[in-house]
Amino acid sequence: MSLAVTAVSHAAGRRRLLDAVSLQLEPGTVQVLLGPNGAGKSTLLGVLAGDLRPLSGRATLDGRRLADWPAADLARRRAVMMQRDELRFPFSVDEVVALGRLPWQRREQSPGERAVIAAALAEAGAGALAGRRYLELSGGERARVQLARALAQIRADDGDPAPRYLLLDEPTASLDFAYQHHVLKSLRRLADRGVGVLAILQDPNLALRHADRVSLLANGELIASGLPADVLDTERLSRVYGLPIVAEQGPGGRRSLDVAETPPAPAG
After folding, report:
1. CB-side neighbour CA atoms (13 Å) of 134
2. What is the pLDDT of residues 34-52, one digit of tens each?
3. Rounded distance, CA 245 to CA 260, Å?
4. Which domains does the chain have, with CATH numbers?
5. Which of 38, 121, 200, 261 has the most CB atoms around it within 10 Å of its CB?
6. Are 240 and 216 in contact (CB under 8 A)?
């Protein structure tokens, strides 16, 4: 069982966004997508979600094409948190999270549903936001509520043991340092419960610390995929990002990555 793309290509007009990319998301793992802006990360996530149909190749869940899944069944198996926030209705925080329960056709005001919503908010570090107006929140607070919505969506209460998948487009982008790690630790707990997690991140150090696997994209191509320590090679990263990347050893032998300082130009 897995959520996968095989030899997938996609384009916008004449511009190729993905070129024969193959990737598999396994249950119980945290996989991170890294790459420069325009590498094709969001496009790949859209294909994996079933929101974009590839020009060629296959996108499948449990071996079945995503396009062949009934929408409600697919929504109960995978949830997506996009980077863009286009919600403009005057909903409360609880009502936004309850949107994730629509595929389950449960009554929002039932005690069981209220418990699901409260648990999702707590897991996303947004429990204190319950009852507030969504549009009055900061960008970081909205991001945590949207994560709670996605968590509520894949909370299985139908007795089906099939694994769930969570796809996130830069879930840490609007968050401060502390909440970045809170969210990624929450994703780790989800993976420990059998959920397959795929997150687009910009910081390779977060991937080193929290990911089981890393996939590196550039110009629509999959450059490397595997263990973080193997994929995040300084020579490879320097080539992909066009900057001199160096590795440093921190306390406890923890490895971190940074841009090398360039010597000042000689005075003349």
Report:
1. 22
2. 999 999 999 999 999 999 9
3. 6
4. 27-52+70-222 (3.40.50.300), 233-268 (no CATH)
5. 121
6. yes
